[in-house]
């Protein structure tokens, strides 16, 4: 249980051509951390992992606690956050600037956890995709978008330095889960936050690839994938 | 001692603007593997690590076994190679094609180890750089190049998928050490090989960053570093 290590299953670049099959069971993923984000086979829902519990925000808007399923892509770690700092900000941009300041560098991977009250949160969940899986850019267009006013919950996720853009979405990748477990998803925007922000930076990142998955081993991942990643994740 | 894990200290992108200071002592590096490649502070020499022994090919051409020093960049692992396969090839290009075939995928990190007789090997060692350190492209021009005919030794190193071009040199990164420990370096070219090739692929890569190094934490690593990496490493 290494506290300064971020664990990642799968690589973002493999989602671009449509390798959306789950290649690691949740039970195995959770041995590497009890806090994190991810998605299931077919990008079926946005996962928020807190205290070892896995919440799936479905494209219907429903939030379900789940205990089985496999992830094509996920990040988890064992929390060892620094002391939470009070934060108050009007825009997502200001929050992200404050997150980076609290992390203290753009060059390490880091986790963020912001619990508080939000005047507005806009989040999305991709609709479950089926074989033959489309590429990531197409799935990003096939999503449900939810908005909620005056919601209390947890904004959480990871900062990835730009240098690793092929394996992780560069910048912040944030998910949200309301305290009443009634709303959440992959965060598109938010505003009017009052809460507490905690950050944790990592000296080590362990990238775990689906080494036994024939589709992955044979895929052509050498095109210009970064443009599609940027398009799909923002 | 995880056999399917490649350990890397430092990130290739940080060498580009000249972060050439050693940030991990060899003694610590060797706890993560006894086979590998790397370099010392100021890119002082090309390291070949075999059986836990560290050989430094200096810009003078001298090969020294060393036991201290710090690495800005290195890869190590604990060998668990598959059965060696006989290999005979006229050119480096054919050897690399055979290496990839034996690895069986371009999408995982892998190690290669080719012991044999070489009709020719051309290798380089960068000259030790001093502060203020130049960028990687400049150091690549400031190197000594050595050639040797009819030499028996070990060609070894790693395959990194293109997707991770910011953290590792995409493609093969190969070093050479002659059996008599009299010749070696970062391999530029070779020809006429008869030997045995063993490969090992990794499900996991652990990237260890210099999380306590102020220069690293504050560096601007968000430019277009890949062009410089390609220029310097090939």
Task: Give the SSE layout.
Two copies of one chain form a homodimer.
Chain A: E1 5-9, H1 12-15, E2 24-25, H2 26-29, E3 35-39, E4 46-50, E5 53-57, E6 63-66, E7 70-71, E8 73-77, E9 85-91, H3 92-103, E10 110-126, H4 136-141, E11 143-160, E12 171-178, E13 184-201, E14 204-208, H5 214-218, H6 225-233
Parallel strand pairs in A: 1-14
Antiparallel strand pairs in A: 1-8, 2-7, 3-4, 3-8, 4-5, 5-6, 9-13, 10-11, 10-13, 11-12, 12-13
Key features of this structure:
homodimer, 234 residues, alpha+beta, 60s Ribosomal Protein L30, Chain: A, seven-stranded mixed β-sheet, five-stranded antiparallel β-sheet, 6 helices, 14 strands
Distance from first to last alpha carbon of chain A: 32 Å
For this structure, the CATH topology of chain A is 60s Ribosomal Protein L30, Chain: A
Overall shape of chain A: it is globular
User: What portion of the residues of chain A fall into strands of 2 or more residues?
Assistant: over 45%
Oligomer: homodimer
Largest interface: A-B, 36 and 36 residues
Count of individual domains of chain A: 1
Radius of gyration of chain A: 16 Å
| Largest sheet: number of strands, sense, barrel closure of chain A | 7 strands, mixed
**What count of helical segments of chain A does DSSP give?**
6
Number of DSSP strands of chain A? 14
CATH architectural type of chain A = 2-Layer Sandwich
Give the C-level CATH assignment of chain A. Answer: Alpha Beta
**Protein structure class of chain A:** alpha+beta
pLDDT average of chain A, as an integer?
A: 95
Helix percentage range of chain A: 10-25%
Element order, helices and strands of chain A? EHEHEEEEEEEHEHEEEEHH
Poorly predicted runs of chain A? none
Keywords (chains A, B): Acetoin biosynthesis, Decarboxylase, Lyase
InterPro entries (chains A, B): Acetolactate_a_deCO2ase (IPR005128)
Organism (chains A, B): Lacticaseibacillus camelliae DSM 22697 = JCM 13995
Pathway (chains A, B): Polyol metabolism; (R,R)-butane-2,3-diol biosynthesis; (R,R)-butane-2,3-diol from pyruvate: step 2/3
